[in-house]
Amino acid sequence: MDENLRLPPIFHLVAIGRKNAAAEACRLAKRGADPATLVWARRDGFLDCAVVLSPETPLAEARLVLYAGMLGLGDALGALVPAGTDVTYRWPNVLEVNLAAAARLSLAAPPGARAGGTPAWLVLRAEAALGLSPDSKPPAGFGTTLRAEGCADFGVADLLGAYSRHLLTWINRWMTDGFDPVRAMWLRHAPAHGETLRVTVGSRALRGVFDGIGDDGAMLLRGPKTVRRVALDRALAG
Predict the structure, then answer these.
(1) Residue 186 is inside which H or E element, if any?
(2) What is the CA angle 8-12-13, rounded to 5?
(3) Which of 109, 115, 172, 212 has its CA 20 to 30 A from that of 233?
(4) How many CB atoms lie within 10 A of CB 60?
């Protein structure tokens, strides 16, 4: 195990090889893994981790943990990257470093879970492209690597440790104070907030001003006559 890794004691670490951390976390969750089981798929130059959660609210509300996760990873990056490096959010699940996609989060729930029911578990996955050198090509789905953006003073274990601590902070904040402070902080660091966007969900293309985020995590797109809602689960599903 990496001696530089420091996790809050609530987490139970499961380190695996070059596999999909979310797939392994889902497998463990189905077998009754304890909440806060943290799966780390160890790879050079790439963070891939997934934590098992035990929601106490219906799925439609429990999905909001995605925003807490993004803030946790954003704060972790903010604490590690050089001064002057911009860490921002792109809806629904992308973290940008200097306006290029460098990290992302995703959610998995039990098959057949319904929005109005409380799922037995959720898995929150975080991925970040650190890169092996400034010249490393970004993995598919990413626009840059942290090394390419001048972030060379920390490794995967450092980022995982920082993320685990900040994730815990934001989940506790959400559970204690509700979604409002989470939403406000996310929007504060979302450059597209207030801008006109074109959003594609499935085969539909929508255009409007990014007006905010609803209580259910949906994007609010303001058009000339009405405000449209782009559901979080549909956007995550592509």
Answers:
(1) helix 179-188
(2) 95
(3) 172
(4) 18
